[in-house]
Amino acid sequence: MDRILIRGGRRLSGRLPISGAKNAALTLLPCALLTDEPLTLRNLPRLADVDSFGHLLNQFGVSTLVEGSRPEDFGRVMTMRAGRLTGTTAPYDIVRKMRASILVLGPLVGRAGEATVSLPGGCAIGNRPIDLHLKALEAIGARIEFTAGYVKASAPRSTAGGGRLAGGRYSFPVVSVGATENVVMAAVTARGGSRIENAAREPEIVDLCRCLVAMGARIDGIGTETLEIEGVDRLHGATYAVMPDRIEAGSYACAAAITGGDLELAGVTADDLRATLDALAAAGVTVEERRGNVRVAATGRIGPLTLSTAPYPGFATDMQAQFMAMLALATGASVLTETIFENRYMHVPELARMGADIQVRGRTAVVRGVDRLAGAPVMATDLRASMSLVLAGLAAEGETQVSRVYHLDRGYERLEEKLSAVGADIERVGDG
Predict the structure, then answer these.
(1) Relative to the CA of 93, which of 16, 229, 354, 432 has its CA 20 to 30 Å away?
(2) Under 8 Å between Cβ of 408 and 390
């Protein structure tokens, strides 16, 4: 199994390109199920989760073609075509490896009138039940059944034999990104209109809606908490570019801050990571916004912060671990409160191995800044936790070994190549 070796203490400087967004890509890929015409996605990141989702689409008879990209390039162009669906079941062996597989539920029932998806179960950062996905689909006309660890969603069948959702109204009791994505994809081909209230407003939701509109969907209220969707008989193909990854951009912004560096993040939509940039500025980091780029620079130690995670436009839960690593070297005590997931502090013991002073009480962590971190062997527990360990390693004295780097490969395209190009002493090695 591969490991990442980091010899810390080097200041990062230069231009660092930001890849297409993982979370957006995993939402756009299932849109291919909604039409029998080709859907081409550009700026698709080279990530393990993207490859896995492509394999899942193949299960339903979707052809996938990667074109016009060299192995040394960042990003890919993929054309998918679901001319005829050959199945509507997402098996356990695939779903258990990638929770985003649940996002085929909405588009399959929307187009084929039925979908059967394995229940995903829990995950390393806490239970993430799909009850809101199912309640939202029921509200727009789906019938939900459970059998042998699978959930089946079906649309009422007409006398002609085809199943089609009726449309309807649903107000989420709490904001859910994944459930919003699923119900939107199901509603765009319903017989009637749908109104989705308290919808998630993340930039990835906006990206999904814009892609669907490019395919012929009718959606009003994009970017707000209320989406009005008028169902259409069919969608057509389209070519669409995946948005830049705001979490990757925020992670590398923290890399600049923790190393006292100066990075130009290229291909960034600054408004999409406003809460991250505001927090960095509050900690004394220089943030300069330019057209399509953001410069992040730090001189000296950063100041402490008090942060609480929240749905967009609040401070993202996917940035909590990275900020914790950065604040481990701040000039005072910081307080971080995790409101989204109940078990997202598993990186704390690993950071403590490197000398961080962190105390956790329930969902709140108090991070008291120390003068230095020391390199150590550490183990990643999830995607964002793994990035926090890389950040700590970049600033630590001596060598840090990060194990279980397959977590990193799920969400950061060629991380060691990007960091090496801006001055990091980092490499990937195998156990053999």
Answers:
(1) 432
(2) yes
Segment 289-313 shows an average pLDDT of: 95
pLDDT-above-90 percentage for the chain: 84
Residue in this structure with the two tokens 């990643």, named with its chain if needed: 380
Phi-psi region of 161 (alpha: psi -120 to 50; beta: other; left: phi over 0): left
pTM over 0.90: yes
Q: Are 245 and 20 in contact (CB under 8 A)?
A: yes
CB 33, CB 57: distance < 8 Å: yes
In the chain, what are the domains?
3-18+244-429 (3.65.10.10), 22-241 (3.65.10.10)
| Residue found by looking up tokens 């749905």 in the block | 311
Residues 6 or more apart from 340 whose CB is under 8 A from it? 309, 310, 311, 317
| Catalytic residue, candidates 123, 209, 211, 254 | 123
User: CA 370, CA 316: separation in Å to the nearest integer?
Assistant: 25
Answer yes or no: is pLDDT of 275 > 60: yes
**Mean pLDDT of all residues in 397-426:** 95
For the record, the structure tokens of 48 come out as 């393990």
Rounded Cα–Cα distance for residues 197 and 429 (Å): 48
pLDDT computed for residue 126 by the predictor = 45
pLDDT bin (cut points 50, 70, 90) of residue 59 is: very high
Helix (H, G, I), strand (E, B) or coil at 207: helix
Residue type, 406: Y
Cα 46 to Cα 54, 197, 365, 390, distances in angstroms = 12, 34, 33, 19
Q: Distances from the Cα of 222 to the Cαs of 1, 119, 157, 193, 219, in angstroms?
A: 43, 29, 30, 15, 7
Residue 160 has pLDDT above 50, yes or no: no
Determine whether 209 is an active site residue: no
* CA dihedral for 63, 68, 72, 75, sign (positive or negative): negative
